[in-house]
What we know:
Layout: H1 2-5, H2 37-46, E1 56-57, E2 61-65, E3 73-78, H3 99-106, E4 120-124, E5 137-142, H4 144-155, E6 170-176, E7 182-192, H5 194-197, H6 201-208, H7 210-214, E8 220-225, E9 231-236, E10 252-253
Antiparallel strand pairs: 1-2, 2-3, 3-5, 4-5, 4-8, 5-10, 6-7, 7-9, 8-9
Amino acid sequence: AAATRSPWCGPRPGGAAPCPIPSDICGHPTDKGPRLVLWEKVQACEQKMSSCNSLLTTPDYVILHGDPETKHNFLLVPSCRITGIECPFIWGSTAYKGYWYDAWEQAQPGGAAPVKYPSIGLGINSAHERQQDQLHIHMAGILSRVQGQLNKHEKARDITSDRKKWPDQVVPVEGLDAKGKPATRYYRAVIFSTAELRENLFKGLGDYVPEAGLHKADQMLVVTPRSKGGFYVLNSDPSVKGGGTGTADFLLVHA
């Protein structure tokens, strides 16, 4: 019954995907505060208020500039009230499944937020590493050194497209820390086809990496294109052997 009383949860008009029923873990539509700025921006756009400054507004998400505002720093933010990666609803079969593929499409030339950088990276941070408590996918540049390293791991057969091997395909990737110094972290890596990216990536992570599903709040994800087609998908958390991380910031370039 609760899902039918609120326009922010359950079935929605216009063909939009359903939203989670409000809860402490997924959030309430009335949530406010300094960590809910993105949620306030989404509401302004979905309600067609004059304060909306989106690059694109759809029934399922809004595309916004990131902070700082650059030509390679954009965000895809769901129109549902969803705190972040810890919300169990987005790991299920009824959530909108196109967040990641749509972020990729909108980051292309001709999209709402074309990322002007040699290579593109999409990323989401863990609950402990993010600054805003509304789910958002970063559409940004990715360090030039990253894809070359992943390509070498693939040639060494340390990365494959076999999702059943995803939990065990742990590879080191050197990025940069907050001070711009080289820093290596370890990631569970797998190859997705373009068609597979159209699926619900959160659900796929839970289905094939049980450890991630058990500790949803700790997870991060990065998606970046592969030279032979498709995408490398990286997942990590602080428990990953060798030294994992809950943030995409070692690999992405925003400023």
